[in-house]
């Protein structure tokens, strides 16, 4: 059976509004997971409007909910060194009592100028695509090792170099939180095949998504991994005036093998939006 989650982009909205929606969603059994994104400046609406840091906000929401699985769709690997990110994610998994789904990706594409500005604005380096994907693969390796290995280790990669790396405490979940990787490029899908438990792609072009899923199957076969071990996930926007379009998209994607759906509701969030989502989109498919 498909699983459904809610996405509240933490921009152009206040903390109290996001908290209200998450608390409500926590009481709606049809909604199994909840998500934020990872941008440091708005990528829509007023470019100078508010945008909250994802992991800090996620930890606050983890402490205010009891049932929902939760995560970022997806963490930019460009923003935080991987060993630091492993520590942050462990903290959220502990705060949540073991409910973290660890979402990560290579970071915004160079052709997305409104997202690109957040790097210059925060003194962050912006490397080319090859660097972003290579460093993502090394980050996934390092993070998993920090979550699972019982002794300090060194890591001498092309992009990540650590001395005496060690993670304590470990995450609540064993062997570690599920790893969700978002992306669509062939290079990223090779990282997905090796490291991910869940693969996410934005909806909108189902033929392309299905083709990318088939390519992922091929990459899994090349390394001897069962493609069925990776859950296929899709991020879909929801329009309050036309929930039927989202229902139709879910049905088509389910037929194409997608079983995990993240439904993004736009601000301002109406009162009762989580119940509305369950009744108008999820329950009536």
CATH class designation? Alpha Beta
Report mean pLDDT, rounded to a whole number. Answer: 96
**What shape does the CA trace take?**
globular
Side by side, the strands of the main sheet go 3-2-1-11-10-9-8-5-4
**How many helical elements?**
9
SS-based class:
alpha/beta
CATH topology: TIM Barrel
End-to-end C-alpha gap:
13 Å
Helical content stands at: 40-55%
Number of strands: 11
- Whole-angstrom Rg: 18 Å
Topology as H/E string?
A: EHEHEEHEHHEEEHEHEHEH
What is the CATH superfamily classification?
Answer: Luciferase-like domain
Strand content: 15-25%
Question: Could you outline the blueprint of secondary structure elements for this entry?
Answer:
Blueprint: E1 3-7, H1 15-25, E2 33-36, H2 54-63, E3 69-72, E4 75-76, H3 82-95, E5 102-105, H4 113-121, H5 129-148, E6 153-156, E7 161-165, E8 179-182, H6 186-195, E9 198-202, H7 206-223, E10 231-237, H8 243-255, E11 260-264, H9 273-282
Helix pairs in contact: 2-3, 3-5, 5-6, 6-7, 8-9
């Amino acid at each position: 059976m498909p699983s459904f989650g809610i996405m509240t982009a933490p921009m152009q909205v206040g903390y109290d509004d996001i908290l209200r929606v998450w608390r409500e969603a926590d009481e709606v059994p049809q909604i199994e997971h909840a998500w934020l994104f990872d941008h440091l400046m708005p990528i829509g609406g007023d470019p100078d409007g508010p945008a909250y840091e994802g992991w800090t906000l996620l930890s606050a929401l983890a402490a205010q909910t009891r049932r929902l699985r939760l995560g970022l769709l997806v963490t930019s690997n460009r923003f935080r060194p991987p060993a630091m990110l492993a520590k942050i994610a462990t903290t959220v998994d502990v705060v949540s009592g073991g409910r973290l789904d660890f979402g990560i990706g290579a970071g915004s594409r160079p052709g997305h100028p409104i997202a690109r500005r957040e790097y210059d604005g925060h003194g962050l380096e912006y490397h080319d695509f090859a660097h972003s994907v290579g460093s993502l693969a090394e980050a996934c390796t390092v993070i998993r090792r920090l979550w699972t290995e019982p002794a300090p280790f060194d890591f001498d990669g092309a992009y990540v170099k650590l001395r005496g790396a060690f993670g304590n405490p470990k995450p609540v979940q064993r062997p570690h939180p599920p790893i969700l990787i978002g992306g669509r490029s062939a290079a990223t899908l090779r990282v997905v095949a090796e490291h991910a438990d869940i693969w996410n792609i934005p909806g909108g072009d189902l033929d392309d998504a299905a083709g990318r899923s088939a390519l992922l199957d091929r990459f899994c076969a090349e390394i001897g991994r069962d493609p069925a071990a990776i859950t296929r996930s899709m991020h879909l926007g929801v329009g309050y005036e036309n929930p039927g379009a989202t229902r139709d998209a879910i049905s088509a994607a389910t037929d194409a093998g997608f079983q995990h759906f993240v439904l993004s509701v736009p601000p301002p969030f109406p009162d009762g939006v989580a119940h509305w989502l369950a009744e108008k989109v999820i329950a009536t498919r």
